[in-house]
Structures are given as C-alpha cells and as structure tokens.
TrEMBL record:
Protein name per Swiss-Prot or TrEMBL: Uncharacterized protein
InterPro entries according to UniProt: ConA-like_dom_sf, LamG-like
Keyword entries, A-Z: Disulfide bond, Signal
Pfam families associated with the record: Laminin_G_3
Organism field: Paramuricea clavata
C-alpha cells in the first residue's frame, strides 16, 4: 500500500513537473516570437532608411531643417533672411518649416562661388499656398542662365507648374524638366546630376525630361544660393508658402537615396 502511494505521488510530481516545463517552453516560444517580430520591424525600418542615414555625411554640402533657425546644421553655411521669413513650428515635414510671404527670401552668402563640379544633388519639401499667378523661385544660385542650377515654379496650370535644371558648358539654360505639382499640398523634389545624366524626382517619382541635356561640370557662378526667390538675374518671383528639409549634396543621389529622403515626411 505504501509502495502504491509512493508511485502515485511520483506520478503527480512528474505531471506537475511536465506542466511546468510545458509552460516554460510556451513562454520561451512566445518570447522567441516577440523577438522575431521586433527583428522584422527593425529590418523594415532600416530598409525604409529611417535609421541608417547620416544626416551630415561627408557628401552633404548643407542641410537646413528650419526647426528653430535658418542655420545649416552640418557645415555652417547659415542662411540669412532678406525681408520677413517666418519659422512655422510644427507645420513642416519634420517639426518646423520656413514660411515665405511672397516678398522675402533666404540668402546663403558662404556658397557664393562654390565649385559644384560634376556631382550634385538638391532635395527639399515645399508647399505653395498663394500667388498662383506668379512665377516663384524655390532654390537656386541664379535665375535661368544666370546660375548653375535652379528649381522654380511657374504660373501655368493655376500655379502648379514646376521646372528644374542645371547649366553646363554645353547646356546654357535650366528647365531641362517641367511637370506639375498640386497647389496647397506638400511635395518632395530632388534633382540629381552625375556629369552625364540629370534626373528630377517629384514625390518619389522620376520625371520624364531631358536627362541627357548636359555634360561635365556645372558652371561656376559668383552668386549666393537663394531659397524662396528666383535668385540673381531676377528681382521678382518670390515664393509664397512653406519650404522644409533643404539638403545640398556633392554627389548624385541614387533612386533609393531619394526614396529615403521622401520617407521623412510625417504630414
């Protein structure tokens, strides 16, 4: 009888031990699933470019976040306002944005005479909110053939036309690309040049245009870089609306790198 009781007790203890082991295995299995889920999320974020992009890499010429100031957060090419340019907190793509009233601009004198070479890109966000009947400069170092490169909006299509281009020894004027960007909405634009091919992207879509317009180095001009107006050679054509996350690069961005910049948006 005592032996039977001992066997019964051993069976009960074994069952309890088995139940505990199963519970622990289940917990470990759930933990592993959670780890796998977190790893998958981390991989997804890396692929989106959120975490693997150095905002001030060696290829960045200047970077203007417009969160609290007009300074270049990477290399000290700080912008100075001419007229009244506002800083609109919490209105931009990532926190603040620069707000232009159709009669003001930002001037970057330290980039006057900069040697742009044959590797160049510019990326920014903009939202045009007024004065659709005017041409409006977004960023440049001179108007049309007066500069080395520009991105500018037209008055056509109710102020929705946008053009861009570069100037080289064999291409004397800009607007190698022209397309439309809807009024009163945020848009991302990027222009890239590698010495032989010029690409223009609007909202992460590569646009059709004269990609083989130009060869060699961009022409050198002793003009300031201007944000929010058409630049040297034009006294009018001020921008009306918001501009944010302006970056200049001394390299030709790839399509994947343009996508990473496009995915910065949170509005």
């Amino acid at each position: 009888m005592a032996k039977l009781a001992m066997i019964f007790l051993a069976v009960v203890l074994l069952q309890l031990l088995t139940t505990r082991v199963i519970a622990q295995c289940s917990a470990l299995d759930q933990l592993q699933k959670r780890i796998n889920s977190l790893q998958a999320e981390a991989d997804k974020l890396k692929q989106s470019g959120c975490c693997n992009q150095d905002p001030c890499s060696k290829d960045v010429i200047a970077y203007y976040k417009f969160d609290r100031s007009f300074r270049d957060v990477c290399n000290g090419h700080n912008a100075v306002q001419v007229g009244s340019v506002g800083l609109a907190a919490s209105s931009g793509i990532s926190n603040g944005a620069a707000l232009f009233n159709g009669a003001s601009k930002l001037r970057i004198a330290s980039l006057n005479g900069y040697t742009w070479g044959s590797q160049f890109s510019v990326s920014l966000w903009f939202k045009r909110t007024g004065q659709q009947g005017n041409y409006q400069g977004i960023i440049n170092n001179g108007y049309y053939s007066y500069g080395s490169w520009e991105i500018r909006m037209g008055r056509e299509n109710s102020g929705q036309k946008i053009g861009a281009g570069v100037v080289t020894s064999n291409s004397a004027a800009t607007w190698n690309y022209a397309t439309t960007a809807s009024y009163n909405h945020w848009h991302h634009v990027a222009m890239t040049y590698d010495g032989a091919t010029l690409n223009f992207y609007l909202d992460n879509q590569q646009q059709k245009g004269n990609s083989k317009c130009c060869q060699g180095n961009l022409v050198n001009k002793t003009n300031d870089v201007i944000i929010g107006q058409a630049g040297h050679g034009m006294s009018r054509e001020f921008f009306y609306g918001y501009i944010d996350e302006v970056k200049l690069f001394k390299k030709a961005l790839t399509a994947d790198e343009v996508t990473q910049l496009y995915r910065l948006k949170n509005v």
